[in-house]
Design a protein that fits this description.
Blueprint lengths: L2 E3 L5 E3 L1 E4 L5 H14 L3 E3 L7 H11 L7 E6 L6 H16 L4 E6 L6 H13 L3 E7 L3 H9 L7 E5 L7 H9 L3 E5 L13 H10 L3 H11 L4 E3 L4 H8 L8 H8 L14 H8 L5
The protein binds NADP nicotinamide-adenine-dinucleotide phosphate (NAP).
Length: 282
């Protein structure tokens, strides 16, 4: 597996397995199948409500901890954000059955993110988390967080797929030492991604599926990604993307698919700021 080196020297597999929207009762089997397929990096969140199932699958696999890379995410915390963040971290760690995390992300750019970040900096300094990062932060919020804190986020996990490519976000984050990580690489099939004619033709030229072309395109852009599937066949196929290379012309043709806009929602939309920012996760 190809790795990407984060700003503090931690090496992270460039391709992982995401468990968003896998129901808790199906997650243990999905993660067990993903481990068997060869995944070693896992992306969950307290908000996904399946950390315990992820933890059980990791433990039962018997795979040494240092061969795994585990990410989870902090949901928006009430005041005092510092204490509540540390409590939420301990809850996630207990559910996962781990003694440290590889990557802990602020899931949404809402509430007292500075209080949350200070607590995460403490946990990072104490060696409880190898790298800390953020998610769904627009570039202005990334720069502001960096300017007023000690630790530069290692990762910013944001929506990136062929219809929303985030070149400017990648440049600004990268110039500030932050790696952008793709969520929703297949846009969850929106815009008929899996039958898109450009992606299909490129896939045919390499004997690969649209999904494999998308993952390869992200990897060639040095963007780490977490692919989600509950199908063992698709899990295996999604890992099989290291034996071909997209040409410059193919990268250009995919670049032309960018619409420059989200297929989900803008994290600056006041209605979503309020809806997600006031939601609470136990
Ligand atoms: P996605 O990866 O864009 O799409 C997932 C969908 O693609 C699933 O319905 C899956 O169906 C299908 N699929 C997977 N591989 C396929 C293949 N080879 N051929 C055809 N269909 C395929 O969407 P996502 O799950 O929302 O995003 C991926 C991960 O990103 C999440 O699991 C999560 O870890 C992370 N994420 C983070 C945030 C955030 O706010 N930070 C938000 C969303 C997602 P099957 O399962 O039936 O194969």
């Amino acid at each position: 597996m190809q790795n990407i080196t984060l700003n503090n020297g931690v090496r992270m597999p460039i391709l992982g397995f995401g468990v968003f929207q896998i129901p808790p009762e199906e997650t243990e089997q999905a993660v067990t199948d993903a481990l068997a397929a060869g995944y070693r990096k896992f992306d969950t969140a307290s908000a996904y409500q399946n950390e315990e199932a992820v933890g059980r699958a990791l433990k039962n696999s018997g795979i040494p901890r240092d061969e795994l890379f585990v990410t989870t995410k902090l949901w928006v915390q009430d005041d005092p954000a510092d204490d509540n963040t540390k409590r939420a971290f301990e809850t996630s760690l207990t559910k996962l059955g781990l003694d440290h995390l590889d990557l802990y992300l602020i899931h949404q750019p809402y509430g007292d993110v500075y209080g949350q970040w200070r607590a995460m900096q403490d946990l990072h300094r104490q060696g409880r988390i190898r790298a800390i990062g953020i998610s769904n932060f627009h570039p202005d919020r990334v720069v502001d967080l960096i300017d007023h804190n000690d630790v530069v986020p290692a990762v910013n996990q944001i929506e990136v797929h062929p219809f929303f490519q985030r070149d400017t976000d990648q440049k600004i984050n990268s110039d500030n030492g932050v790696v952008i990580e793709s969520w929703g690489p297949f846009a969850a099939g929106k815009n008929n991604l899996f039958t898109d004619p450009v992606l299909t033709r490129i896939g045919e030229a390499h004997g690969k599926s649209v999904a494999q072309v998308v993952l390869r395109w992200l990897i060639q852009r040095q963007i780490p990604v977490n692919a989600k599937s509950v199908s063992p066949d698709r899990m295996a196929a999604n890992l099989d993307v290291f034996d071909f290379t997209l040409t410059d012309d193919e990268m250009d043709r995919i670049a032309a698919l960018d619409t420059g806009t989200t297929l989900y929602f803008d994290h600056r939309d006041p209605a979503m700021v309020s809806r997600l920012g006031t939601m609470r996760v136990e």
